[in-house]
Write a structure and sequence with these properties.
By secondary structure, the protein is mostly helical. It is built from eleven helices and three strands. Helices cover 67% and strands 2% of the residues. It has a three-stranded antiparallel β-sheet. The radius of gyration is 22 Å and the shape is elongated.
């Protein structure tokens, strides 16, 4: 079991890494690729929600969560309320990644239906989980304040409904969603004519979401163990929250890293915007005005490269920092 101090260290290291990776993503989209979209907006919301959760978890640790003494009311309150931004951040992070996949790989009706369904279910999921977790008791403060008359009844109800039942279903849902989104690119890229080294690299980059599914499974196991041994429940909560924040930040980092490739290759003549018309709105993305190269010859090379990698048809994927994914539209695909 981990302490509150360990939780704080993991929490804020993850928050810092997520912020840096998102910053690189934003810079790449705005100043290199010159194309922004709904996926960037939802990833920003996911990051803001994650930072809000980090603040609430830190406040909970400050008031005693993760210590070997009995937890305080404020520690229970902040740890319980942190579940709201945690849930929103995870859902919006998945929505952002699904929108990214939709932009670069959603060129067939079957793929579009799968990705749109995934996005829709994330919003439904947020409403259902919030209603189930925070609507079992009135007033909600009875969950963390033992002085409330309904406190014992609320905790019993929460244990029976959420811990013994919903926790396992939520684990299956989270892990299943994360695994499916992580493996989706592998199924598509596996049927393209890319070079094997490039194909493996892209599959690895876009498949980092597998780690979030693993975190969801481990967290569920720790969660069940917490309620099976209530003697050190306040101290044991820190372990659960460590896996929670790790899962949270991996969603943001794993969905953003593939979008940062152009940042580390910005000296290549591959990304100056795309060949769609200025201001064009396609698959939730808006093309910004291209940045012209200083040398006319370089400018011509970049423009030709951009058109080669992106394609001139409206149904082809946009160049969003993953320039090599232009091959996805030209490869032989059956899915």
């Amino acid at each position: 079991m981990a302490s509150g101090t360990t939780l704080n260290v993991v929490n804020w290291i993850g928050a810092g890494l997520s912020t840096v990776v998102f910053g690189i993503r934003a810079w790449t989209r705005l100043f290199i690729v010159r194309s922004i979209g709904l996926d960037d907006f939802f990833m920003l919301l996911a990051l803001l929600a994650a930072l809000a959760a980090a603040g609430l978890i830190t406040a909970s640790v400050h008031y005693g969560m993760g210590s070997q003494t009995e937890g305080t009311i404020l520690a229970s309150k902040y740890s319980f309320l942190s579940g709201i931004p945690v849930l929103i951040s995870q859902a919006f992070g998945r929505v952002a990644f699904a929108l990214t996949l939709l932009s670069i790989m959603g060129v067939t009706p079957a793929r579009q239906r799968f990705l749109y369904a995934t996005i829709a279910f994330q919003f439904i999921w947020v409403v259902v989980v919030l209603a189930l977790s925070y609507g079992l008791c009135s007033p909600v403060s009875a969950f963390w304040d033992p002085a409330q008359a309904q406190a014992q009844e609320c905790l019993t109800k929460y244990h029976e409904v959420v811990v013994k039942g919903w926790n396992y279903f939520q684990t299956i849902w989270d892990a299943g969603t994360d695994f499916s989104l992580a493996l989706f690119p592998a199924l598509i890229l596996g049927s393209t004519n890319m070079k094997m080294r490039l194909k493996i690299g892209l599959i690895a980059l876009m498949g980092l979401g597998v780690l979030t599914g693993i975190c969801a499974i481990v967290k569920a196991i720790e969660y069940a163990l917490l309620f099976s041994n209530t003697e050190d429940s306040n101290y044991a909560q820190a372990t659960i929250f460590i896996w929670t924040v790790v899962q949270l930040y991996i969603v943001i980092i794993a969905a953003s890293i593939p979008c940062c490739r152009a940042f580390f290759r910005k000296n290549d003549h591959t990304t100056v915007g795309n060949s769609n018309e200025l201001g064009a709105y396609s698959h939730g993305r808006i093309t910004l005005k291209p940045r012209l190269a200083k040398h006319p010859h370089t400018r011509q090379i970049r423009t030709q490269a951009s058109r080669t990698l992106v394609g001139d048809r409206d149904d082809e994927p946009l160049n969003m920092g993953m320039s090599d994914l232009g091959d996805v539209s030209s490869g032989k695909q059956t899915i």
